[in-house]
Amino acid sequence: MNSTLAWANKWQNFESLLIILLAAHAGPHLCLGAGNGTTVSTVDSPPTSSVNPFYTANRQPLTPSPLIKLPIGSIKPEGWLGHQLELEAEGLTGRLPEISKWCKFESNAWADSKGQGQNGWEELPYWLKGYGDLGCVLRNQDIIQNARKWIDAVLASQDPSGWIGPRRLTNSLNGQPDLWPNMLMCNVLESFYEFSGDPRVLPAMSHYFEWLNRLPAADFGAGYWPKIRLGDNLQSVYWLYNRTGQAWLLELGDKIHQNMARWDSGVIDWHNVNLSQGFREPAIYYQQSKDVKFLHAATSNYETVMDRFGQFPGGGFAGDENCRPGFGDPHQGFETCGIVEFMHSFEMLAKISGEPRWADRCEELAFNSLPAALTPDWRALHYLTCANQVQLDRGNKAPGINNSGTMFSYSPFEVYRCCQHNVAMGWPYYAEELWLATRDRGLCASLYGASEVTAQVGIGGKVTIGEQTDYPFSDTINFRVTAVQPVRFPLYLRIPQWCAGATVKVNGKAAAHTLRPLAYAVLERQWKNGDRVTLQLPMRITVRRWEKNENAASVDYGPLTFSLKIGERWVRYGGTADWPEQEVFPTTPWNYGLVIDAMDPARSFELTRKPGPLAPQPFTPESVPLELKAKARKIPAWKLDSSGLVGKLQPSPVKSEEPIETVTLIPMGAARLRVSAFPVIGEGAGAHEWTTAE
Ligand SMILES: [Zn+2]
Questions:
Q1: N or C, fewer C-beta in 10 Å, the chain?
Q2: 334 CA to middle of ligand 1, Å?
Q3: What's the rounded Cα separation, in Å, for the pair 580 and 659?
Q4: What pTM value is reported for the model?
């Protein structure tokens, strides 16, 4: 036995003793679980007390984060998520250079060693950020090589001052620099470094931040987008500090926070994308300040926005460009950029706070809103996705919708210029967060999805965990451990807020421990090759009422919201055979109110599950495996308005003399035409007579 191994064995014995001692102190949290050498407990958040030596986490004096990102490439997405990423690679993101002038290498300012040329703003780094990560997550060599060509050019463009990329940006805001596009390019470089360990990246980023640190304070408040979004750069400053330990980076961190728009004072801007990324800034700065009031400020920003504008299902809010008082109906939209940025914020907050509610929120948006923002073949997207959206025509819907012009129909082209590029990071970033490391040298299944993760755990053993599931279309998640040597480590499993009665089995033996919602189950044992864990997250039909939106109702089953299934007629109006622009019109009635059993709302619905394996792309009306049957009556006066926007909700309960019909509801993410916030049918004096608007 060599000395390292002897040390390791001693450490392991010591560690076992430590666990026993800890167990004795853990009191009600811990019980003798599965009885086969496994302890099972529940915690609100993974611990911050220990140190994980295998993965780069917050370096002192930054606040330790309970959950740590694994390097890109550690997680292999499978199942429907893997297929979604393949569609992305073969569709809009993988082939965007064919149709976007901003992604053309030749004459591009991002590709020039002197930063001279065209198209040097946010579009290229928006796309490259998702495109590069897509290549790494899929290990797609063509994409990796093409992304690398851009990254090599960007790194080669650094001038002696430290500036990277297009030179025009150094004074494009009335003589002051536009800091926004390089915030995105920093994200590109971070991912590239995590995947490749390329030695050029850290010096280049240090040099750039030295340049930034020399800027006068007033320049941090220049322009509209940069001053509001500088929290993005703050996280990059910490990312670099964790890898280099350069103390001046923390001075820069303070300088950014003090001089950018102050999200710690409340919601200071109502643009949907600014909100989706800006609201989290205080939580980013909390890592440096250590004052929990900053973490709470981000939560408070989120709650303020959702309370005023997020009163419908799907996880987003009414921000069809800007949130506007009086425009909170579910027919308002949420920009595709907003969807992916909000998801990214939730992914960051899940790690910084360790609170499982942020992962819940990420899943809600990912399953219910993101899929329907795109065509099922990933060849086009739209600007706005709405909870109630029954027709996707290209006509102008302003002023009902904030922006004028085409916002709803599907197009791959620059009509949706920001989203066209920014949508790229949605699923790759999501896939990178399925599994996270914990500080006590364990692993956490944070977002659930079929995948395989390989990571270092315990005293340094390498473990691979295969996760097999059709989640969210199934409530059962199977894990299988592959390990050359047995290794002791804690496995954290998130129990979502919606889930009462979760159960877990280890090697077929059920744990007696109650797994409460909005917590993590912790399974600690000497894991060995072939160990199996089965997590069951029972899903129930529940009805949410939206008192602030005319008392409408929405129907959930676990993390999935259900929408009325509406027949779709797709009509091409532009583009090419390869890249069509399409409108979608309803072929079946949509103006229904639900008939709901007041005493037991869930009884009003009957769930059916199609037999057979899950379709690779389950987010279509035909392929989605779950359906609900519901009782409904038509509301004849509920119509499209003159612009083609579904009429606003009116107060429920609503009168209807129409016959009761059986209607079908399908998961919201599969319904490109949908009603997700329903009027509720009622009778008697309290019931409202729907009046035709205008
Ligand atoms: Zn956009």
A1: C
A2: 10
A3: 40
A4: 0.95
